[in-house]
Amino acid sequence: MKKLSLLIFSSLIFTVEKAQKQISIDSASEYIGQKVTVCDSVYSIKVLPHLTFVNMKGNYPDQKLTLVFYKKDLHLFNMEPAKLYLSKRICVKGRISNYEGKPQIIIRSLKQTEIK
């Protein structure tokens, strides 16, 4: 019985450790290098030949967070990000990186996003 309890407890610790922390979009730049969940509104989208940028909580260059979609990954989505996310409130999961002083998350899977 002790072994079973220890196994269950260990599983719970591992699950909690792997869970991504939900943060405020205003503090995104404080979490560079960490996996997080962020929820807020999409303000603008910029589509380039090989990239799509989705700007959250502000228009470029005043956005609080940018989501980056590579063209090679777009086939994994049921619709283009420009149509799917514009003017919507969404939650995203991923590792925050820094690009030219601004926080960004690279989106490679539909599982990383959820429309609220």
The largest sheet is: 5 strands, mixed, barrel
Strand order of the largest sheet: 2-3-4-6-5
Kindly provide the radius of gyration, computed on alpha-carbon positions and rounded to a whole number of angstroms: 17 Å
SSE class: alpha+beta
Polypeptide structure, described:
The protein has 116 residues and is α+β, with helices and mostly antiparallel strands. It has a single domain, classed as OB fold (Dihydrolipoamide Acetyltransferase, E2P), CATH 2.40.50. It has a five-stranded mixed barrel. A hairpin with a 3-residue loop joins strand 2 and strand 3. The protein is globular, with a radius of gyration of 17 Å.
How would you summarize the topology of this molecule?
Elements: H1 2-18, E1 21-23, E2 35-47, E3 51-56, E4 65-70, H2 81-85, E5 89-99, E6 102-107, E7 113-115
Parallel strand pairs: 1-2, 4-6
Antiparallel strand pairs: 2-3, 2-5, 3-4, 5-6, 5-7
Keyword list:
2 helices; 116 residues; OB fold (Dihydrolipoamide Acetyltransferase, E2P); alpha+beta; 19% helix; five-stranded mixed β-barrel; 7 strands
Summary of the model, kept short:
The protein has 116 residues and is of the alpha+beta class.
